[in-house]
Amino acid sequence: MLVLSRQRDESIMIGDDVEITIVDVRGDKVRLGITAPTEIPVHRKEVYEAIKREGGRGYKVHTRHTKKHDTSEPADNSS
Predict the structure, then answer these.
(1) pLDDT truncated to tens, each residue of the chain (79 aa)?
(2) Are 12 and 20 in contact (CB under 8 A)?
(3) pTM for this one?
(4) Nearest Cα to 34, choosing from 14, 51, 52?
């Protein structure tokens, strides 16, 4: 496993097409923004495992129309 240190607003690239950006760090939570081509499915691990358990049914439905994947919780814009 490759372990990297990044600060907020810094990114890492996976190949030429996948960019992972540190969006925010709050306590023990890190919010990531993931930009990937639509043909590369991006899921949280627990969602990926559920899809695999279901035999991949609906796999393309979840990713077909999404260009930018954000694996974080919705933003709290109240402040």
Answers:
(1) 999 999 999 999 999 999 999 999 999 999 999 999 999 999 999 999 999 988 866 555 444 444 455 555 554 444 4
(2) yes
(3) 0.66
(4) 14
In whole angstroms, give the CA distance from residue 56 to residue 76: 32
Q: What value, to the nearest 5°, has the Cα angle with vertex 34 and ends 30 and 35? A: 160
Using alpha carbons, list the distances in angstroms from residue 38 to 7, 35, 54, 74: 26, 9, 21, 21
Quick check: 9 and 21 in contact, CB under 8 A? yes
Tokens for 46, please give them. 């627990």
